[in-house]
């Protein structure tokens, strides 16, 4: 039926004809435009701000500044929506100019005079932790925070997650060898092709209408209430199609500015739309990291202990960076069984753009650190790196770093992924070959796993309404950010109702007033949570259809079946009612009627999740662990240090593939993003921590023709409580790519490459540095 | 400030004559989107780097953020809204060559022009044309498959326009 088929996404034709509409495509006569005035310093005191000339400029209605605004932040409220007194990163918003046209707002923005007194800027987590480092937040102790956030006042530590499992000393004592590896990379960016955009309008009745390019429309509602005391019921958020998100549109930022701007102009509609430059540095970015991994193992390569220190570069404000640092800790070992684990994961403040989720939520970062260390361990022991991974692969019965016992359902089949990867890559044939004097080919691999560290009470709802022709509308709060989840929901509903998926329509746009809530469209949980809700809604609809049909057919509902557009008697399908005749209730020949429109309702809430113990990390952060094994084959030129990515492989345990082509697309797209990040992306900072490359010309993601050949396969180990067994797959493709690329290049170049991005210059520097003893 | 610099422009867009009053400094992209309501062409960088704004001007793919509207007077502009059931649109749908769809109009216009202009395009030519657009969702392999399929089909049936 519908599940397991490559159903074309429901909005496909809108997208290839230019009819698909995104937030910034909705224009209205009389809508005002806002432009952000941002800081040219990474750390500075604001001595004065003079907006008089800007206010006098043509078309200008208001200049909004930061005085008197509440602090914001999801875990800890440390961020003023508009900076006051002090700026903490290059590109931070200091004022918002509202004018009739965008051009007028842009011109007036240049007239806002701000006098700064520069302060010393903190450039990396390790610098931020040094004795005497400048403090970003002097009043860390005064910030409001939730129970699971543990800042360390008097330092630049926004949060520390501790994982303590087993006995680390004993683990190292039992080890024959101990290797230690350090890795690092600077913050980078999501670069969704659609830059973030939000509009706000406040109606005379007090209702607040927000339109936003967001993964979290329901969170916007909640946060406007928390921060500004607005009544939740009066906040209506509209989210049309979103032009790429990858985690970057989960945080709430521009929406607050649009709201403040609208308030400043008597509730008129105001649009705030990021320029590419602002989108890259003013809005939150992909986190940076410095990490040290120490692995203790036996001669045979069996892991005995892992000690891990993650110093995440959370940037100037903690936002969701706290959560990212926690997620990496939760899965710190990767998909391997380790009895003794000691991990400290710190979210550290620096004077850099603030960080937020990036596809894989801390896991490609975790994997880069640990998988580099595993390769170093294999090299030290002269073992095959694949063997080492296979030997330690996580299995049902093992426990995770946060001490969750794994079952056949809640963890994927890691050995199967590794075994298939080995075959696909022809791993045993060669791992490094010299084609000629200068050209080397090499392969590198990585394991990966992920659970979703999400709110323990995250929930999702689905409503199904029937049309008089018997077709169904699916209404869900999942935002269509490109993952095709809404189409997969239609498949799930069609499968359950045994109907043609063409007769299942989906409502793409979100309107928080009429769409049931879906916590956030993040963490690859759309299919699982909304899928469960959709199944519940379908069952609810089936019950209603049977009830009406039971009256008409004078049969017990228990004897009825729903499917193929009919409700029929199980033992005699020739006795039936077409669904279209009862979808709006049934009218008897004499005019009497029963029933009414069939409206199926369903919801799902995650179960048995618990916060982590602050001392040991013990707790259940997410519902299941999806696993994958990935590899990269490169061709390296030893003369000029350039390389070509020839092939990229992924074997992912999908649980069940609901839509093969869509699943492949998710995996390959994630792999591409991972390779792009690892090979060429990253912000360049000057000594004052100003970003030097906030443009797509100087920050250059992978382009057409630079892509390798992608080879993706799925293993199917069902997650029993998920719709048809499907696991989240939207992020796994990314997890192993940076590590696999670094492992391949390290092998090719013969020098450990533990920094990203892996540009030729870095490889050259590492080689020279090693042979000359200094860099 | 701008009032003095506005003027009336007559543009030929998708086979229609459209007249509009716009600032002389306005780019083609903004006039198409804000003035004519043709929002298919997307702003992605306004700097010529991403290709999301690609439209055809006299059949040549142009980044409409880099061209003033006034420069296109007397020329034929085709936007994604003006494509009618082009083979490349079908191929994009079949090959799942997009996800969020934001880069899609630009990619399709560029690919469409490539196919029209160079039906015999080889690997190098395909790359040269398509590397001017960024897609952040797909792996490009899906886009490559769509473009190559249309080129192949064209070669197989050369008389079919
Ligand atoms: S918007 Fe024109 S190239 Fe990016
Ligand atoms: S489909 Fe999203 S950027 Fe290409």
Automatic annotation (TrEMBL), chain A:
* Signal peptide range: none
* Assigned keywords, A-Z: Molybdenum, Oxidoreductase
Recorded GO molecular functions are: iron ion binding; oxidoreductase activity
Residue span(s) of domain Aldehyde oxidase/xanthine dehydrogenase a/b hammerhead = 17-120
Name the residues that span the membrane: none
* Classification via InterPro entries: Ald_Oxase/Xan_DH_a/b, Ald_Oxase/Xan_DH_a/b_sf, Ald_Oxase/xanthine_DH-like, AldOxase/xan_DH_MoCoBD1, AldOxase/xan_DH_MoCoBD2, AldOxase/xan_DH_Mopterin-bd_sf
What is the name of this protein?
A: Xanthine dehydrogenase, molybdenum binding subunit
TrEMBL record, chain B:
Q: Please report the stretch or stretches of sequence annotated as the 2Fe-2S ferredoxin-type domain.
A: 7-83
Q: Which domain of life is it from?
A: Bacteria
One of its Pfam families is Fer2
Quote one Gene Ontology molecular function term.
oxidoreductase activity
Query: Which of UniProt's keywords are assigned here?
Result: 2Fe-2S, Iron, Iron-sulfur, Metal-binding, Oxidoreductase
**PANTHER family linked:** OXIDOREDUCTASE WITH IRON-SULFUR SUBUNIT, XANTHINE DEHYDROGENASE SUBUNIT E-RELATED
Any idea what this protein is called?
Answer: (2Fe-2S)-binding protein
Which organism is this protein's natural source? Geobacillus proteiniphilus
